[in-house]
Amino acid sequence: MPVCEVCGDRPVSRADSRTCGPECRQERERRRAKATYHEIRQVVATRICIICDMPFAPAGQGRRVTCSKECRVLFQQGACGSRVLDRAKRHGVEIETINRIRIFRRDRWTCQYCGRPSPHELMGSDDPRAPELDHITPMALGGGHTGRNVHLACRTCNRRKGQSRKFHLVRAHHGSYTIRGRGGPNL
Fold it and tell me: Does residue 30 register a pLDDT over 90?
């Protein structure tokens, strides 16, 4: 006669049953649910690194979004938010670590299209003068996500430019810009 799977000492009453009674049956179901939960958790815990696209299993709480220290450093330096990285990969353009604050300081917190100040305090706001990182040659048109191809543009000018190449900027010596083309925002 078979014995109970849970307590192991009492005999099972029916040949097709695995437990001796309702308490052991309930405990067996609880154990099965717990095992299933942990199996599902392990499958769900596998993630894709947002920098290098390699799969990894985060330890502990599972909040990590990068697979290694190198990718974490790139992510923390603002190398690529996931949207920028996805766009760069989709268009097959060059990518480098960019710190927007350094770019904005280089451009003296001034819009490179209209020349108006774009203060630090407006970063992340909906204000028309808010500073934004703009690709001189858009990634969709082959421009890379590099320090040479980005500059500060106020929200208004950046929205007007869009993915256009009609009015691109050419850097002259001493870091100043010359606007070429017609149809630029507020020129």
Answer: no
Q: Does domain 79-179 have CATH number 3.40.1800?
A: yes
Using CA atoms, how far apart are residues 169 and 150, in angstroms rounded to an integer?
Answer: 10
Q: Convert the pLDDT of each residue in 3-28 to its tens digit.
A: 888 888 777 777 667 888 888 888 88
User: Does position 106 have pLDDT exceeding 90, yes or no?
Assistant: yes
Start-to-end C-alpha separation, the chain? 93
CA–CA dist 147, 99 (Å, integer): 9
Give me 153's structure tokens.
């543009």
The residue extents of the domains of the chain are: 19-69, 79-179
The CA distance from 133 to 111, in Å, is 10
Q: What is the mean pLDDT of residues 66-75?
A: 78
Can you spell out the DSSP letters for 105-154? HHTTTB-TTT--B--GGGTTS--TT-EEEEESS-GGGT--BSGGGEEEEE
| Encoded amino acid at 125, one letter | S
> Residues near 159 by Cβ (< 8 Å), separated by ≥ 6?
none
Q: What are the E-state strand segments in the chain?
A: 47-48, 55-56, 131-135, 150-154, 169-171, 177-179
Strand partners, 56: 47
For residue 118, CA distances in Å to 78, 128, 156 come to 20, 9, 11
